[in-house]
Every structure is written in C-alpha cells, then in structure tokens.
User: Fold this.
Amino acid sequence: MNVLVLNSGSSTLKFQLVRTDAERMRENTDLKLARGEFERIGGEAVYSFRAGDRPAVRGTVAARDHRAALDFLITWMAGPDSGVDLDTVGSIEAVGHRVAHGGERFRASVRIDDEVQRGIEDFIDLAPLHNPSNLKGIAAARSVLGAGVPQVAVFDTAFHQTLPERAHLYAIPYQLYRRHRVRRYGFHGTSYRYVSWRYRQLTGRTREQTRIIALHLGNGCSACAIDGGNSVDTSMGFTPLEGLVMGTRSGDLDPAILDYVANKEGLALNEVERLLNTQSGLLGVSGLTNDMRELLAEAEEHDDRRAKLAIELFAYRVRKYVGAYLAAMGGADAIVFTGGIGENAAPVRARILDRLDWLGIALDAEKNGRTTHGVEGRVDAAASRVEVWVIPTDEELLIARDTVRVISGLETRY
Ligand code: ADP
Assistant:
C-alpha cells in the first residue's frame, strides 16, 4: 500500500511517500519512495523533493494554501520525470497525518471521519498553533485525492495517555483539571513509540522488558520514561513549553516569572509566553542562535562564553531529568538518544551523561565519537550497567505503518 505521510505546519508541509503492508512490516522491508517539504506556503512557496536516493529537486511555486501545494506535489510525483515509483496519482492509497494534540480522547491512531475532525477541532484550544495546521493538511488531502482515499490521524500525545495520575496531574486545584483538562499531555509520542520499538528490535527484548529513558533532542526537546513499553512520565506538559531547555523554548521555570516580566517589560501575558516559546532556550541564553551545531562551533572556535553556557545549561537540564526518571522507574536498562541533537551531537551526549558513572551509566568516548549522523549504535562503555543507544527517529515510518494497520483493522499497539 502506498501511504502519503503528511506533517502540516502553518506555512509548511512535510511529506513522505512510503510503501508498506503487513508483510513488509513483518520483514522490515518498507520502502521510502519519496520525501520532501514546502516552506512559505501562502505566497511563493519554496519546495525540495527527493525521490528515493536521487538528488533533491528544488524550486518555487505560487501556492496560496496547503491544497495548492499538495496539488503541485501530487502532479510532480505522478509525472514522468519525478523518479517516484508510482503509476498514477490514483496509486496513493492512503494518507497518514501527524496530528499534534488528541487530548484525552484519542489514545491511539484513528481513521479520520467528520467526528474525528471535530475532535481535532475541539483541541485547538490546547494546541492553537498546531491543530489548525493539521486540519488544513487533512482538508487539502481530501480535496486533492478525493473522499475515497482513507486518511488516518496519528497523535503526538497518544503514547503518553498511559501516564499515571501522579505523573500527569499538576498540583493545582483539582477542579482546573476537571473543568478545563489542565494536565500534562506530553508530546513527541510518535518518536518515542518508534525508538522504543526499534530498541526492542535491536536488543531482542520484549515490550515488558522495555524500561528505558528516551531523550528526543531536536529543536523541540523532551525526555520520556518508558516502563513495560508504556510512557510513565515525560517532560513536556500541558504544552511543549515545559521540561528541557530547547532551541527557543525555556523549558521549566517558575510561573511567577510571567507576571513579573509582564509588569517590568510592559508586556501582556501572552507576549511573555511567546517570549518563552520563541526567544528563550539556547537562543535566549547564547544571544546567538537556536542551532546546536552553530553553538558547538562558536564554543569551539571562538571560546564564546555564552555559547558554552547555553550548551552547559542544556546538558545539565537533561542530566537532571535522567536522574529524575531513574528515580521514577527505580532504574533503567537503557538510555536512548534521538532527534537532531541526540543523533548527531556526540559532545552534547557526553556532557549529558557526564558524572553519572556512580549510577552505572558510562559512555565509551571512542564509540560515542564514532557514532555520527543518523547511524544507529550502542555507545556505552563495557563497565556501564545501563546501555546507551543512539537510535535515529523515524516518525514517518511509524505513521505509515499505523495508517495501514488502522485501515486494515490490524491492532496498533502503543
Ligand atoms: P526538529 O525538532 O525541528 O525536527 P531536528 O530533530 O532536526 O529538529 O534537530 C535540530 C537540531 O539538531 C538543531 O539544533 C541542530 O543544530 C541539531 N543538529 C543537527 N545536526 C547536528 C550536528 N551534526 N551536530 C550538532 N547538532 C546538530
């Protein structure tokens, strides 16, 4: 089955075309036929597409909305020069969407119908930036491919619906949870599901034996404690703002800062919140960039004090969460790094796990340095009691597989 996986942002559209079915899943022979993205949808959109291992095709196209972008993409895919192994537009058999927020209602992936769309709309309050964009992607796919092509929603929050109350409730008046569903939801769920599944494949362990701390460190960053295969705690909360230091987000802070800064700076509360989401984190501390690669270069080449400080703060916060989750689960069998930073930045991994040997966690410096750029590998030292893995995430693959499972009525295990 050819599944188009879509991840729609407010002015972006990322896609992958994946061929998969029950047999390919069993044999691990899913095929990535094409992938790419649009940016700046709404005007002259910039696109970059790639069929299989071919070089990327780049260009611009006037795309008023997601529908126009998708229309252009589908025409390209089915065209004779694209190199995509697809007979006709009609051979896209299903669409899988990454959807940010499924609240407490969506605990697993579902086939999209009017009621599910209304459900996603209901959670716009909780994800005002993301859910509306996801809905745009759903509407675009329906309009371009027709209502006959089934669509499936895969929620970033669903994996964390197993969090026990003690982990997902905030210690605020309980009515605020009852009335407004103020609680920790957690995000990056699809990524965590992927790496924990892949960890089981690499190690031969069962779901029940999966007791790991997974660290998704990209532009957005979070940590997740996975016990018996289930998420039991995670660092992002009611919104993705809580938890680790991120590219532009502050992560954990004292909520009294909001009102204080609002008064001192003459800002409205929502402006302070925006500041915490878009001007903080690595960018805010360094005053330079939200990009870890650039910060590492600045620290190395110019010995920049604030670049070094930002990296140190980042690593320190992750380390504290590792300690917290070891305590929460009473230990762990492995730590798994993923996301752009987790997969690629060996020096950051080393800083995060620095001085944890007392807890039985020790990196092998040589293996850690050697494992670079999207490569799976084990990087702990022989003496380490806890395994340390680097597992590049593949959310698109999981979305494609879920899509096939949901449509074929197969079980989607979380
Ligand atoms: P997103 O969360 O948007 O998917 P990614 O997972 O691609 O983002 O992560 C982006 C982050 O990964 C950036 O901070 C980037 O600098 C960092 N990164 C990517 N490659 C490297 C590298 N080789 N060394 C250090 N950091 C890297």
